[in-house]
Amino acid sequence: MFAKVLFIASIVITGAIFACGNNLTGPEKEFVGTWSFVGAAIGDLEFYDAPRVEMRFNSDGTWQDDHGGKGTWQIENNQLTISDDTGETERWTYFLDGNDLTLIFTKAQFVSYLRQSGDFTEEDNRILDQLLGPNDTVRLFFERKV
Length: 146
Fold this sequence. Notes:
With 146 residues, the protein is an alpha+beta fold. The protein is built from four helices and nine strands, in the order H-H-E-E-E-E-E-E-E-E-H-H-E. Strands 1-3-4-5-6-7-8-9 form an eight-stranded antiparallel beta barrel. A hairpin with a 4-residue loop joins strand 4 and strand 5. Helix 1 packs across helix 3. The radius of gyration is 14 Å and the shape is globular.
């Protein structure tokens, strides 16, 4: 089940689209490049044996991943906003430290996204309820591919 949740979470990130301008400055400039998904944390539990996913943030505000996903992206304050070609939009808090990127979801955001994926069962919901308290977060870890 953990592998399924982590895989779905990684696909969530790669399946979204962002909106952004062409003149990047500040934190937007720091996102440009290719990022590899390396692990996740659900509450206090960390998992690093996760499916590998790569996504590239381009300087023109577009992105693509190695699973065929593509779109646009935008940074505002410490929020990364993504929208996919179906019109779905997600906003996550992020932390960027050099070549390490962490995307942070609240429990509600994570469950909402998994429900939208269409592959989320009530059993999955019960497991997440056992793993996550109402104030816990889900964190996805990426490293810049150099």
